[in-house]
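Researcher: Re-running this chain for the archive, since the previous output was lost when a drive failed. Same request as before.
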Amino acid sequence: MTDTLLRCEGLTRRWGGLVAVDGVSLGFERGQVHAVIGTNGAGKSTLINMLSGEIPPSAGTVHLLGQDVTGWTQPRRARAGLGRSYQRNTIFPGFTVLENCRLAAQAAYQRPWAWWQAASHCERSLGAARQALSRAGLDAVLDRPAGLLSHGQKRQLEIAMCLATAPQVLLLDEPLAGMGAEETERMLALLDELRQGHATLLVEHDMDAVFRIADWITVMVNGVVIASAAPGAIRSDPAVQAAYLGGH
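Model: Regenerated structure tokens:
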């Protein structure tokens, strides 16, 4: 029995005459890192944007935790258990690490009835933020302005901000981009730890990292899935070698 937390069927996005994503059907399982790879323009980010609710599909459906969420907004999907990180940093550089994460948690634990109390005093949001930052390995820098973090720490903070909303599904768009070897190792360790309890969609260009961390790999070319299998099968697939891996 599989535990499919996120599923899309026939997902398509057209921009005028251009078909950016064409009839993609995929499932993302709890406990698995599912990598989506492809060259620039393959449709990876458009796929994530449709799954997260940032852009609507031209056709097809999205199911999150068994519910049809195709017509749901991005905030509603986030509240239902979907966390998202972006290619570029989306932190508030002048705020502390803890405050960045608390603001993310606050979005999940809204209390409009407590209008007399400062949101920064919400113990539930603070607790969720501290727990998420601890999982991301940022305990030692809670009070540091986020803008002063290293590049790798900023990426860790973005994942912590996702975790603070208590998601079951993580959509991670190039979390290793721009990292050195040591930062990459820390991030891979974090992704491995997060495997438990989450379904993770990973878009990443670092192929060595992808083949180390992924349980399942989907390859896209020109908006179409050309292969979706375990890493060993993907590495030996002639179509994938010809289209993406360069025959190696």
